[in-house]
Design brief:
This protein is of the alpha/beta class. It is built from 22 helices and 12 strands. The strands form 4 sheets. A 5-stranded mixed β-sheet has the order 2-1-3-4-5, covered by helices on one side. A 3-stranded antiparallel β-sheet has the order 6-8-7. Strands 9-10 form a two-stranded antiparallel sheet.
């Protein structure tokens, strides 16, 4: 395992510091406080709704608790500019509020200070150093000095960018699963080549040979039938050729490039793409032909609800590029095994790899553990995303599809899995089924995807209660990698939890 300098964010390991996502009770409390402040006429609260709620400008706008929750989630998804001076000032203000008995600050300290949670220190003993420690942990660091080190490094990068310095060369290729950082890289002084990989491996059949005619036909048909309804006709018609062109491009590397930098976050969507690329590179012995580097993170200071690299400002991207790691042979070899197991028609080997001790890519292991949760549950035949969507909608009785995606993506899912149109496709499948679990009861926008107002059917309620089985009652046909899940099969692979392999039942 590689060593990481103090204050480094790029890593193959996941952070062991608790994040705001792990405390839904705090979100509920803060939502209530924000809503009360809004109705009390607090200017900051009113401004929050105006800035982060799409209908707050309407004269008849009267927010409910769920609206306050949405505002907070959107606020916390956006990046905040951190500075050492501002954090020092914040620490003094928070200590003063704590001593005055502010319940929100007290709750914040309990979330992030390990000695307070363990009982080793009482709230009455808190000093400025304790508040600084809380600020450091809230931003993903184990200590205040490490946070300071990060901020100093960020300042140095900002100075470089202001001077117009370029941080890479045209001989470097940047690879990413999507184009969300393409413009950001340019602003970060990274002007090398850029290529986005668009194949969404979290959905549909994924077989060992992606360009095999039968496999390609099956995958293209599945993609068109699922996400095809949400994309432009020309993109849908060209999907098959796009997948072939992408595969051929990867096989053509390194070409004239002397370095390839891979940009990925921690979730299954990204880690599948990373495994796919490293599998190729291992087969092609690319490590012998060019430098292979990795930028990989599961957090970034200033973003409370970190979901991905696309949230990071250009100076942050520049800093991450400076921290990039060398891809070692054992990392490429392990990713090769993971991809082989993922594209197999039996998931047991994949489970075994996620359990391997001292593996060279533990973030990838964690992501693939989340992927295994998409196998149907013995309780009701639903995968994790399907079940989670029903739970979220059920709790509100009626919910806009886009809002259900936000709550799943930013709050409920232990690790973000699907993009928005993939999530909407899953909802639509549960609407269109022979025995639908969801029904549309209205629409807030006739043109916008995800604008449907959804409610559970009586059958959907039976599913959540475990009194019905989705696979038994519907003509389900979907895949997790190379493993088919089919309602017409006598037996299917079922998820049994984190500690047991999927079982053929």
């Amino acid at each position: 395992m590689q060593n990481y300098p103090e204050g480094t964010l790029v890593s193959v390991r996941s952070s062991d510091i608790e994040t705001i996502r792990q405390h839904p009770e705090d979100l509920a409390a803060r939502s209530s406080e924000l809503l009360k402040a809004y109705f009390d006429g607090d200017p900051a609260a009113v401004r929050s709704f105006v800035d982060y709620h799409p209908t707050a400008h309407k004269p008849d706008f009267e927010p409910a608790l769920i609206d306050a929750k949405q505002v907070l989630l959107f606020q916390e998804l956006g990046p905040q500019k951190l500075s050492l001076e501002r954090l020092k000032k914040t620490a003094k203000q928070q200590l003063k509020a704590l001593k005055a008995g502010d319940p929100a600050v007290t709750r914040w300290c309990h979330i992030y200070h390990p000695k307070l949670k363990s009982g080793a220190r009482s709230i009455e003993e808190f000093t400025l150093a304790d508040i600084q420690h809380v600020l450091a942990r809230e931003n993903g660091f184990h200590s205040w000095p490490r946070l300071k080190h990060h901020l100093n490094a960020l300042e140095n990068v900002q100075s470089l960018l202001k001077s117009g310095q370029t941080l890479d060369t045209e001989k470097i290729l940047h690879l990413r699963c999507g184009d969300d950082i393409r413009d950001g890289l340019k602003l970060a002084g990274l002007n090398g080549g850029f290529k986005d990989i668009i194949n969404p491996f979290t959905m549909g059949p994924v077989f060992p040979n992606l360009t095999d005619e039968d496999a390609l036909t099956l995958r293209t048909e599945f993609m068109n039938n699922s996400v095809g309804r949400y994309i432009e006709p020309e993109r849908r018609e060209g999907m098959r050729q796009s997948l072939v062109d992408e595969e051929n491009f990867v096989k053509s590397l390194p070409g004239d490039f002397e370095e390839i930098t891979l940009w990925f976050e921690h979730d299954a969507y990204d880690q599948l793409c990373l495994a796919y690329l490293l599998h190729h590179f291992h087969e092609m012995k690319l490590l012998d032909k060019c430098a292979l580097k990795l930028v990989q993170v599961d957090r970034f200071p200033g973003i409370k609800r970190f979901l991905g690299i696309g949230q990071i400002e250009p100076e942050g991207l520049a800093l991450l590029f400076q921290q990039r790691l060398s891809v070692m042979p054992e990392m490429a070899s392990f990713a090769y095994e993971m991809w082989e197991a993922f594209t197999a028609d039996n998931p047991v080997r994949l489970f075994d790899l996620t359990q391997q001790n001292e593996a060279p890519l533990p973030l990838m292991q964690k992501a693939f553990s989340r992927l295994l949760m998409e196998f149907p549950s013995p309780k009701n035949g639903l995968g994790f995303t399907e079940n989670m969507a029903l739970e979220i909608i059920s709790e509100e009785e009626e919910l806009i599809a886009l809002r259900s995606f936000l709550f799943a993506h930013a709050e409920r899912d232990p690790q973000s899995y699907h993009g928005d149109i993939m999530f909407f496709s899953i909802l639509q499948d549960m609407i269109d089924a022979e025995k639908p679990a969801l029904k549309i009861v209205g629409k807030v926008d006739q043109k916008r995807a995800g604008a449907e107002i959804l409610r559970l059917t009586l059958y959907g309620e039976e599913l959540l209660a475990g009194r019905a089985n989705w696979l038994h009652d519907n003509r389900v046909r979907r895949w997790v990698g190379g493993t088919e899940i089919n309602g017409s099969f006598d037996r299917n692979w079922y998820y049994q939890g984190e500690e047991l392999p999927p079982a053929l039942i």
